[in-house]
What we know:
Layout: H1 2-14, H2 17-43, H3 61-81, H4 104-115, H5 121-126, H6 134-137, E1 146-147, E2 152-156, H7 162-169, E3 175-177, H8 193-199, E4 202-203, E5 208-212, H9 222-229, E6 234-239, H10 242-256, H11 263-267, E7 268-270, E8 275-276, H12 281-284, H13 288-295, E9 304-308, H14 309-314, H15 316-326, E10 338-341, E11 346-349, H16 374-395
Parallel strand pairs: 2-5, 2-6, 3-5, 6-9
Antiparallel strand pairs: 1-4, 7-8, 10-11
Amino acid sequence: MEYSQISHNLYAFSFSPVKNKLFLLGIMFLLWVYMLYSCVGYCAPMPSLVVDNNRGKETGTGSVVGKRTENNARADLVSRLLPRLPPWVDIESDYDEPSVRTSSRDLLNKEIDAYRGVEDWGEMRGEGQRAPEPGAMSSFSNDLGSKKLPQAIIIGVKKGGTRALLEFLRVHPDIRAVGAEPHFFDRNYENGLEWYRELMPKTLEGQITMEKTPSYFVTREAPAQISVMSRDTKLIVVVRDPITRAISDYTQTLSKNPDIPTFESLTFKNRTTGLIDTSWSAIQIGIYAKHLDNWLQYFPMDQILFVSGERLISDPAGELGRVQDFLGLKRIITDKHFYFNQTKGFPCLKKAEGSSKPHCLGKTKGRTHPNIHPEVVQRLRDFYRPFNMKFYQMTGHNFGWD
């Protein structure tokens, strides 16, 4: 009887409506506390994604450093949170850039178009412009990988065909190259290697980072400075008949400044005696043996590849095959990638990097050269002959310029 009464009381208590409501409220409270606790680690950083445009406006060194630290923290935060965010959330890759949502490939194409045809930042500076900041030249086409110092550099020569070679090489999936000429080892060395690295595109394991600045070949300090960066750097030099190269150099300058003296008057110190003016850069660049001597003090010959500018026009696939072998890459760029443009007089790509359309170099390439008197050409031929012969001997290759 006593046991029955206790059981009845327990039954009445457990099914009391008031008690049931309290029990449910208790469970809901525990679930709410659990969800709040779980969300703290995820949700706490979210407010920092909002960019405060009023920050960093104070003057002074402290505010600049603070802003850089804040930007770095934001970039790190985005990289940690990005995989967790829903697919419809679009976060800009760089908070300092305008918030226009542009695809990575479009950004890269705009960068290439902006600098294509510019062979020398000196030309831009002559028009009152300056070299871009690292962020303007960095490639955005690859969200993965990391920025590395270049393993291969096209060091020369100006008006030899370096732009064409770089554009052709960019077709290869294992080559990543900065679009513009950094001019690090001849003009911007004081900015440091980290500044230089930031100019480079991101690369994955097995990909090669490249850049091209043709003036390196004739810059006396460049070999030593590149050697300090890495003794294993592979160097590529596109060479061309020094007379044709000099005329092309002059033609480019003439297109920008029609009032310069004639080619003949610049070539000779004394027209009567026929003494060549070697202080003129258009003439000096073509003394390849002299410049090569400087490079061989820091790099062995097997780390330097000489590409024929003439064969780059007549047989682009053949020369590109040599370059790919030199870089230790599979021969992917072949005859099927090229067609010959009769109007321009040189080969073009059937499909450029990241495009399904044919691509030729810009209108600044393939300019019509002025007519030079045959006697001037012959004087230059006689002048360059001994230098050419020495160059053939040094490289073990006869380029057939004589």
